[in-house]
Design goal:
The complex is a heterodimer of chains A (115) and B (113). Chain A is mainly beta and 115 residues long. Chain A contains no helices and twelve strands. In chain B, strand 5 and strand 6 form a beta hairpin. Classes of the chains: A mainly beta (115), B mainly beta (113). The interface between A and B is medium-sized, with 24 and 23 residues.
């Protein structure tokens, strides 16, 4: 079945460092891919998405490119801030033609950024 | 616009009891999904409702059930609680016009003693 694999955390960085969080997926068809972020005590928020191969999603300095040939969707940011400390989830949607908004999530990667 | 609201925020129950959790989606959203989040299993899909009909279901035992009302509000129920049901239960809603973009509530933290 469909699945998402993320690198284990925690990832610990100093402020302004470069961030990469790896995500690979297994899926039939052409799923959409997402990164969600969860801050302490809160629900998940959509960070960015990509709906087809070679699409690049971007938001708040974060980027991820949908790579079908390597089945990957790695999250990157050029210069992290302390406020980026959170748990990041990679996810895929079974999407059309299935009539569902169900997401399959990776296990999450905790990012800790220190001043 | 108000976000997804889940009540209660925290809940403590004992084994064998049952519990009902509530979710009010963003106004105008007709799709509501439920997820269970635990440190060991991560985020697991429970079920999805659209216009009062269950559209999709995850691999959970029949003790987990849900429903959706005509105003799109949703409830999930867990009967005969087990220790392993302790988790953060997250509700998410989505719009017909922007499919696959889920808006999550802050969750209900359920502790089973």
């Amino acid at each position: 079945g469909n699945s998402v694999t993320q690198m284990e955390g925690p990832v610990t960085l100093s402020e302004e460092a470069f961030l990469t969080i790896n995500c690979t997926y297994t899926a039939t068809g052409y799923p959409s891919l997402f990164w969600y972020v969860q801050y302490p005590g809160e629900g998940l928020q959509l960070l960015l998405k990509a709906t087809k191969a070679d699409d690049k999603g971007s938001n708040k300095g974060f980027e991820a490119t949908y790579r079908k040939e390597t089945t990957s969707f790695h999250l990157e940011k050029g210069s992290v801030q302390v406020s980026d400390s959170a748990v990041y989830f990679c996810a895929l949607s079974e999407g059309p033609p299935r009539n569902t908004d169900k997401l399959i999530f990776g296990t999450g990667t905790r990012l800790q950024v220190f001043p | 616009k108000a976000g997804v609201t889940q009540t209660p925020r925290y809940l403590i129950k004992t084994r064998g009891q049952q519990v009902t959790l509530s979710c009010s989606p963003i106004s105008g959203h007709r799709s509501v999904s439920w997820y269970q989040q635990t440190p060991g299993q991560g985020l697991q899909f429970l079920f999805e409702y659209f216009s009062e009909t269950q559209r999709n279901k995850g691999n959970f035992p029949g003790r987990f059930s849900g429903r959706q009302f005509s105003n799109s509000r949703s409830e999930m129920n867990v009967s005969t609680l087990e220790l392993g049901d302790s988790a953060l239960y997250l509700c998410a809603s989505s719009s017909d016009r922007v499919r696959e973009k889920l808006f999550f509530g802050s969750g209900t933290q359920l502790s089973v003693l």
